[in-house]
Amino acid sequence: MADNKAKSTKPVNKTPPKSPSDPAKDRAAKRLSYDSNSSHEGAIAGELSALEEAFRKFAIHGDTRATGKEMHGKNWSKLCKDCHVIDGKNVTITDVDIVFSKIKGKSSRTITFEQFKEALQELSKKRFKDKSDEEAVQEIYKLIEGKAPIISGVTKAISSPTVSRLTDTSKFTGSHKERFDPSGKGKGKAGREDLVDDSGYVSGYKHAGTYDHKVQGSK
Fold first, then answer.
1. 21 falls in which pLDDT band (50, 70, 90)?
2. Counting beta carbons within 10 angstroms of the beta carbon of residue 80, is it exposed (0 to 12), middle (13 to 18) or buried (19 or more)?
3. Stretch 119-142: mean pLDDT, rounded?
4. Contact 150, 82 (CB under 8 A)
5. Counting Cβ atoms within 10 Å, is residue 129 exposed (0-12), middle (13-18) or buried (19+)?
6. Where is the composition biased (Basic and acidic residues) (predicted)?
């Protein structure tokens, strides 16, 4: 009986116990893994950074409330025009409008960056007919990457008979005429108020201030 009891005892577990993990090492390993993944994702995103940057610049053009994540049809047309996607031959403004309506959602008025790339892929087939689909897409990307909206110069004032009549001081009458001298220069305060003449000369006398000159000349 004693021998049987000895044989029925549990075998000893020979596997050595695991050493307690080091929390600092675990955090370092996780951080290294995260940084590696982030670098990989950043490298992928970097390939489209120039294109996405152009998209955002055009998306916020003329709209202070825009976030740059979505683009309206007006800005889409401007991008295609400023970046010479529209060449007037293979791609026209009508083609651009048709593609935008096709790509955007039925109830949406804007396109996202992903939809933007789809629209460019559609236009690239027309813009670069002599190239493969992949080459055409790359060529149309090159037209847009790093570009920004072209801001037109200050519009010059258009001359009209009405404006000319209102600004021609020689045709002014009454109190308005008194505000300007014969050359059209404003008289300032003298043209707005009646200033008292305390020179001692009679009003309208044309030889004021010549007395001293005459006296000195006679000596």
1. low
2. buried
3. 96
4. yes
5. exposed
6. 23-33, 175-194
> Cα 6 vs. chain centroid, distance in angstroms?
87
Identify the structural domains of the chain with CATH numbers, from first to last. Answer: 48-141 (1.10.238.10)
At which residue do the structure tokens 């804007």 appear?
Answer: 110
Structure token digits, residue 34: 């995260």
What does the pLDDT look like over 41-97, one tens digit per residue?
Answer: 444 444 457 999 999 999 999 988 999 999 999 999 999 999 999 999 999 999 999
- Cβ within 8 Å of residue 75, ≥6 positions away: 58, 59, 61, 62, 63, 149
Amino acid 147 reads K
**DSSP 8-state class, residue 11:** P
Using CA atoms, how far residue 92 sits from 30, 73, 96, 181, in Å, is 52, 15, 6, 57
CB 159 within 8 A of CB 136: no
The shares of helix, strand and coil residues in the chain, as percent rounded to the nearest 5, are: 55, 5, 45
State pTM to two decimals.
0.50
CA distances from 65 to 9, 68, 69 (A): 79, 9, 11
